[in-house]
Amino acid sequence: RPSPEEALQWRDSLEKLLQNPYGLASFRSFLRSEFSEENVEFWVACEDYKKTKSPMKMMEKAKKIYEEFIQTEAPKEVNIDHFTKAVTMKNLVEPSPSSFDMAQKRIFALMEKDSLPRFVRSEFYQELIK
């Protein structure tokens, strides 16, 4: 469990929150409670994808991420604009570590602007900073 001081830093930094295993788990639980965990799950999937070295593995993971989060009517479709979706699809013709960068940045910004403030006001977070 993080110290209250550590948890307090998360108010101002989604990055610090996501880098902390406990913070990530708390944030995920909170988002799950309001049925909006697809954004953080997409972000985590992209982080994992970027660490992939094997081109074969990368191809597999790219397809899985696309099918799960990007394609229209995907089970956990993330809310990205048409342009970002088009760029991402073009990037997937030849997957590279940066294939999802634009979409991931959009989703990060969305979480920062929307999900993080709600998380900070939640019981989940209030308990952590006591």
Q: Spans of 5+ residues with little confidence (pLDDT < 50)? A: none
The CATH homology group name of the largest domain: Regulator of G-protein Signalling 4, domain 2
Strand content: under 5%
Tally the structural domains.
2
Structural class, by secondary structure, is mainly alpha
Average pLDDT, rounded to a whole number, is: 96
Write the SSE topology.
Layout: H1 4-9, H2 14-19, H3 21-33, H4 38-50, H5 55-70, H6 82-91, H7 101-121, H8 123-128
Protein name: Regulator of G-protein signaling 5
Keywords: Cytoplasm, Membrane, Signal transduction inhibitor
Pfam families: RGS (PF00615)
Tags for this model:
130 residues; mainly alpha; Regulator of G-protein Signalling 4, domain 1; 2 domains; 8 helices; 70% helix
Please, could you describe this protein's structure?
With 130 residues, the protein is mostly helical. The protein is 70% helix and 0% strand. The chain folds into two domains: 4-35 and 115-129, Regulator of G-protein Signalling 4, domain 1; 37-112, Regulator of G-protein Signalling 4, domain 2 (Orthogonal Bundle), CATH 1.10.167. It contains eight helices and no strands. Its main location: cytoplasm.
In short:
By secondary structure, this protein is mainly alpha-helical. It is built from eight helices and no strands. The protein has two domains: 4-35 and 115-129, Regulator of G-protein Signalling 4, domain 1; 37-112, Regulator of G-protein Signalling 4, domain 2.
